[in-house]
Design goal:
Blueprint (H helix, E strand, L loop, with lengths): L1 H11 L2 H15 L5 H14 L7 H10 L2
């Protein structure tokens, strides 16, 4: 799911979205991801690319991580 999200973000060409995604991915892959950071990155990402909120499998996976 994360690789699918990465493809969507990269294909958007939106540099701000790409940076938010990179931060989100780094936090997820880190030793001990902090839920508040994940939520912040996800919120920021969905603000610049609102269409990803409608991709339920991606949204569900991301929100499960920071709950």
């Amino acid at each position: 799911v994360l690789s699918r999200l990465k493809t969507i973000v990269n294909e958007s060409g939106n540099q701000e979205a790409i940076e938010y995604f990179n931060d989100l991915e780094s936090e997820i892959k880190g030793n001990k991801p902090k839920p508040y950071r994940l939520k912040s990155y996800w919120t920021s990402l969905t603000q610049v690319l609102p269409q990803i909120k409608d991709m339920t499998d991606i949204a569900r996976m991301i929100t499960q991580i920071f709950q």
